[in-house]
Every structure is written in C-alpha cells, then in structure tokens.
Amino acid sequence: MRRLLAAAAAALSAAALVVLPGHAFAASSPLPEFDFSACPAPPANADPGTWRCEAFVSQGVLTIGDREIPLGEMRLTFSEGKVDGKFAQAFGELRHAPARISGTFGASMQLKYGGYSDFLSNDERRGELDLYAALRHPLLPKGCTIGTLDAPLHSVVKDDPAVPFEVISKNPQTVKFGVVDTQLALPRTTGCGPLTQVADHLLGLPSPSGSNTFKQVTYVQFKPL
Questions:
Q1: Helix or strand or coil: residue 199?
Q2: What's the CA gap between 221 and 225, in Å, rounded?
Q3: Cβ-count burial 17-36 (b if 16+ within 10 Å, e if not)
Q4: Where are the domains of the chain?
Q5: How far apart are CA 162 and CA 92, in angstroms?
Q6: What residues are paired with 153 via a beta bridge?
Q7: d(CA 130, CA 45)
Q8: Distance from C-alpha of 18 to C-alpha of 33, rounded to nearest angstrom
C-alpha cells in the first residue's frame, strides 16, 4: 500500500506541474453582482403576487478532519411562494467553479446539485441541500466523486453566530448571513478507478459526521416574480 501511495503521489505531482497551474483564492467583494437568469418561473397554479426569486452568492469553506479546503464562490438560485395558500418552492441551479485542494498534487473539487433542497427555514435550521463533489485531475476518471447523484451528501445548515444576519439593502432587498453544517458525513470516493485508495488517503475519507465542517458566508438578493 505504501509503495502504491508513493508511486501514485509522484505521478500526481508530475501531472499537476504540467496541467494544473495554481490560482489564488479570490476574496469576495463587499456586495457581489446577482444573477437571476436561472430563476424558475412560478407554477401555473401559483397564488398571484406571492412568488419571488432568491439569488445566493456564497464564499464557502469545507473542513475534512484537519484539512481546510477553501471552496471559493458558489451561486445558487431558487424561487418560492404559495400555491393554494401553502408554501412552495422550485430549485433553479447551483454553480461552482472547481476549487483547488492543497496537498493533493493539483486536484480540485467542484460541488454539484444532488437533486433535493428545502430552503424553508425554521427554529432548528436555515435549510437543507443535497450535494455531491466532482474531483478533477488529469489522472482521475471523469466520474470520480464524493457522493453521487443517486447517493448524495445531505447538508443541513444552521445559522453561524460568527456571521450574524444583516440587512444590507431594502431596495432591492439584500441580506447577508453565515451558515454552518457541523454534522456533514463524507463517504469514500466513488468512480475513481485505480486511484480510489490514493484519493481516499489524501482526502482523509471516509470522514464521519462530527469530524467535518461546511461553512458559508452568504449574500442573498430577492426579486419579485
């Protein structure tokens, strides 16, 4: 196993020098630009005047054990309102550019939507979202992931006291807040071929609930539909 890890690490390092140049983690601007182009339209039976789109722009950090991975910017949109007097919502899209993972010879991680979301906040949490993470490197197969669309990672985020809720603007309505998930469980990688054990070793996977932290500092702007 040690020989396999050493040989694979050397190959990954050489490939990283050729193919994946470094890039700096970009700091978020005080107020980002918001994109509503992916907002789902209200359903045909929507209660008139109750629907709005929410555009999220977040800076995220994923910590796996003692490894901190700056995720950079994530953008998410969804619409919400009422149908027959009851709350309803429709997911738009999640956009995230690959983020370099330090100490992995140039590998990167890109978050993808896992097929389920619930953004109706309550006293216990701010929202829930299913995700999976695509791992990218010249030596990894295209389907190498943490979690899958069929078996996604389930993230339940709560308010982060370190980043309290703040109203940035009333027109257009814009807010800022922080959320954190300290219970996210991360399984072994899937679809990584001969380098599965190497990928798991470098990332410290599997990593059980309670050993990981998913934090986001988020700006949200609202648009009536």
A1: helix
A2: 13
A3: eeebeeeeeeeeeeebebee
A4: 2-21+35-224
A5: 28
A6: 131
A7: 27
A8: 34
pLDDT in tens, 33-78: 999 999 999 999 999 999 999 999 999 999 999 999 999 999 999 9
Helix (H/G/I), strand (E/B), else coil: 3: helix
Contact in structure between 73 and 217 (CB atoms under 8 Å): no
Helix ranges (H only) for 32-186 are none
Backbone angles phi, psi at 85, to 5 degrees: 80, 0
SS3 (DSSP) at 116: strand
Contact 20, 108 (CB under 8 A): yes
As given in the structure block, the two tokens for residue 56 are 């999220």
Question: Whole-model pTM?
Answer: 0.85
**Secondary structure element (H or E) that encloses residue 4, with its range:** helix 2-19
CB 8, CB 31: distance < 8 Å:
no
* Nearest-angstrom CA–CA distance, 87 and 79: 11
Q: What is the pLDDT of residues 103-130, one digit of tens each?
A: 998 999 999 999 999 999 999 999 999 9
Q: Scanning the structure block, which residue is given the tokens 């890890």?
A: 5
DSSP characters for 17-56?
HHH----PPPPPPSS-----TTPPPPPTTBPTT--EEEEE
